[in-house]
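Forgive a beginner's question, but might I ask you for the amino acids of a protein and the tokens describing how it folds?
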Amino acid sequence: MKLLKKLLYILLGILTFVSLLIIVGAFNPDFLDRLSDFLYSCNISHKSGLLDERKEEPKNLSVTDTVNSDSSYTSDELLQNISKTGKNTRRETTYVPPKKSVIEVPEEVSDRSGYVPVKETNEQIDDKEAETLEKELTYGETGDGLTFDTEFYPYYGMLDISLQKLYRQIYANAIAVNGIFTPVEKVGPEQLKNVFMAVVNDHPEIFWLDSAYRGKFSGGGICMQIVLQFNQTADNLAESKADFDAAANGIISEAQNLGSDYEKEEYVHNALLDRIEYDIGAPLNQTAYSALVNGRTVCAGYARAFQYLMGKLGIPCYYCTGYAGQNHAWNIIRLDGEFYNVDTTWDDTDQNTYNYFNKTDGDFSGTHVREDLSVYLPSCNGEKYEKQESSEARNGKRSLEEVGLSSDVVLTGLNDYYQDCYSRIMQNGGSGQFQNVVENADIWMQCYDAYNSDAYSEAYMNRVLSELNAHSCEVDIQAEELQDGKFLLTHNITIDY
């Protein structure tokens, strides 16, 4: 009877508590929002496994549950390591992986994957061997003094300070083709895997490094030896590098002369599609070398080549891995402070497309889901270039951005055009070239008629000749129709004194 009474009291207490919550929520809706946020943040922390309390052993990663991609942030703020926990107040900028169950791969690209995740081989050794390794092995190259800008090397920024030291060591030994060394930091198997993955994902230029390694661990789970694995390009590395640089520079030299970052991106995208054939059996197909030198690769090769070329052009571009029906790799690129997904592999079909070019996470949510460290890359919510048409789709018409101009320079009337021409010639001190943009075809035809009828002389040129003490001039104008009906006018002015 007493037990039944206690149960009734407990039930009454629970009902009373719930009733109070309902009453408080009715008068103060913000309270329920705060309660929801609290429960949400607790759930994220539990699922991610990255925000647990620190134990004596260092954690695998030290990151927040969010990566803010606000374009107003500096590169250091963008992907910096954060060891604090707490509620995300900008949840809309966080990448939220869609469920694998909703992924549906279009038939025309269903066989275009081939990414192989990092493979580790871990061996536990006895105390005697561990002691021997500790005495005999060296650090090899430590990488002391190296720095990595997280705007271009985001995976480095996902690690805490101690793991960044190990990252620099692995990078330096890979560059030196030194395959065996003992780590500079005491790490466990998962930590080592995350650091190795970060190095591989950040550095497509180390094409001779396989995405696999071996580690020996003491009974206490501490890594005593790291063994890197290199592919056959390391056998004659100088020649391999020369071939790689020649192939890459052939594309870079053409792209770097284009006006905007978008134009450079589009050129590289098309150049890769023209040069590469998808081949699941291609040798070295997890490397940029297979794409640029051999011209045959899988998604990993496409993505690493795109990452490398865009980085060399000064445009942040990241290697992103996950699931798209199979293990898959693609890219995330930053243009004008906004981030976009790019899948060059899936655009390289019988008819090259832009179906997976500069897409948001929403666009990719039904076909791609990020995994591993890639979930901490910036979310892709760019708008400016999401709906941008290709040059072919625009029949060759360029945008203002592509010619390096902004909308505030567009001239909306003939008198504005005359005044701009006068100012530009005087700034040049006479002869020279300048460009301006008129709003539409009607204004351009008025300009055209003014030059044919010599009306331009009275409008502004006689004033120019008078102020420069010149006798005559010759004006040559070329007109290019841009997007949205605007016209770019290029003037070549020759003044005779």
